[in-house]
Amino acid sequence: MITVLSTSATILGNFILVTASFLTLIILIRVFAWKNLTGIFEQRAEKIAGEIDAAEEKNQAAAALVKQRQVELEQSRIEGKKIIQDAVARAKVEKKHIVDQADVEAQALKDKAKLEIAAEKREAQEQLKVQVASLAVDLAGKIILEDLDQAAHSALIDRYIDRLGEK
Amino acid sequence: MGVKEATVVHQYAYQFVENIAYREDIWAIYDEVQRMIVIIEETKLNRILSSPTVSSEDKAGFVRNLRQSSYRFINDLIETLIQDENYDLLLPTLEDILLKISKSKNEYDMVVTSFQALTEEQKQRLTAIVEERFSVKVHNVIEEIDKELLGGFIVNVNHRVIDTSVRAQLGDIRKKL
After folding, report:
1. From CA B65, how far away is CA B90, in angstroms rounded?
2. What is the pLDDT of residues A6-30, one digit of tens each?
3. Mean confidence (pLDDT) of chain B
4. How far apart are CA B49 and CA B90, in angstroms?
5. Chain B residues with at least one Cβ partner in A under 8 Å
6. In the CATH hierarchy, which fold is given to the domain comprising B3-103?
7. Fold annotation for B106-176
8. What are the φ/ψ torsions at residue B146 (nearest 5 degrees)?
9. Distance separating alpha carbons of residues A143 and A158, to the nearest angstrom
10. Which long-range contacts (CB under 8 A, 24 or more apart) does A68-76 make?
11. Residues 6 or more apart from B28 whose CB is under 8 A from it?
C-alpha cells in the first residue's frame, strides 16, 4: 500500500513539476518571445492586407482601363462610321461632278463634231462648185478650140481689135 | 540681181544711151542690141556667164565672140564689161539699154502673143490703137504664138498689158462662177 502511495506521490510530484515547468515556459514565452511571435504574424497580416489592397487597386485600375478602352472603342466606332459616311457622301458628290463634267465634255465634243461636219460639208460643196465651174470652163475651152477654125480665130481677133478701137 | 548690180547695170546703160542719144542711127543700134539679146537667150549664154564654175578666160572668150558689131559703141561696151569682169551683167545691161532708148524716144516694142499669127492689116490696126491709147510710138511688133490662149491675143507695151485672150475671159467666167 505504501508502495502504491509512494508511486502516486511520485507521479503527482512529476505532474506538478512538469506543469510548473510548462507554466514557467509559457510565462517566459509570453514575457520574452510573445511580441516577436505575434509581430511576425502581424507583419504577415499587414503584408497580406497590403497585397490585397494593391490587388484591389489594380483590379479597380484594370476595370477603369477596360471601361476607358470600351469608351474609346465606342468613339472609334462612331468616328469610323462617320468617316465612312463622309467618304460615301464625298464619293456621291464626286460621282455627280464626274458625270456632270462628262456630260459637258460629251456635249462639247458633239457640238464640235457638228461644226466640223458642217464646215466639211460647206468645203465639199465649195470644192464641188469650183470643180463644176472648172469643168464647165475647160469644156467651153475645148469646144472653142474644136469649133473655131483659122478664119474664125482671125474674125475673133478682128472683133477684139474693133472693140479696142471703139473704147 | 542685187541693188549693187542693178546700179552698175544702170551706169553702163545710161552711159551707153547718153553716147548714142543724138545719133540718127539710134534705132539701128537698138535693133543690133536686140539681136544680141536674142542670140544670148537662144544660146543660153547668160547661164554660162553667171556660172561660178566657168573660168574668167572662158567667159571673156564667149563674150568676145559677140564683140563683132559694126557699131563701135557696142564693141566698147562689151570690152568694158570684159575688163570689169562683169560678164553676168551683159544681158541685163543690154535689156536696160533697150528700155532706156525706148524711154528717151517714147518708142517701145509691142509684144503680141496670140493663138495664131495676126495679119499685117490686123497688126497695123492694133499698132494704131495701142499708140493712141498708151500715147507711145511702137517701134517693132514682136509676135509670139501661144496655143494655150485658146483664141484672141495679149498685147504688152512698156509693161502695160491688154489681154483679150479667150483663156483670160474663161478665167473671169470661172471666177464669177
Report:
1. 13
2. 888 889 899 999 999 999 999 998 8
3. 87
4. 9
5. 114-116, 118-119, 122, 125-126, 129, 133, 150-153, 162, 164, 166-167, 170-171, 173-174, 177
6. Peroxidase; domain 1 (1.10.520)
7. Glutaredoxin (3.40.30)
8. -140, 105
9. 20
10. none
11. B71
Which among A133, A158, A161 has the least Cβ separation from residue B174?
A: A133
Q: Please report, for chain B, the start and end positions of each structural domain, with discontinuous segments joined by +.
A: 3-103, 106-176
- Say whether A157 and B153 touch across the interface (CB within 8 A): yes
Is residue B126 within 8 Å of residue B112, measured between CB atoms? yes
| Distance between A147 CA and the closest CA of chain B, angstroms | 11
- Position B80, amino acid: T
ipTM of the complex: 0.72
The answer to whether the Cβ–Cβ distance between A141 and B129 falls below 8 Å is no
Inter-chain contact B129–A165, Cβ cutoff 8 Å?
A: yes
**CB pairs below 8 Å between A and B: how many?**
54
As given in the structure block, the three cell numbers for residue B29 are 543700134
The whole-model pTM stands at: 0.55
Burial B37-62 (b: 16+ CB within 10 A, else e): beebeeeebbebbeeeeeeeeebbeb
A150 touches chain B (CB under 8 A): yes
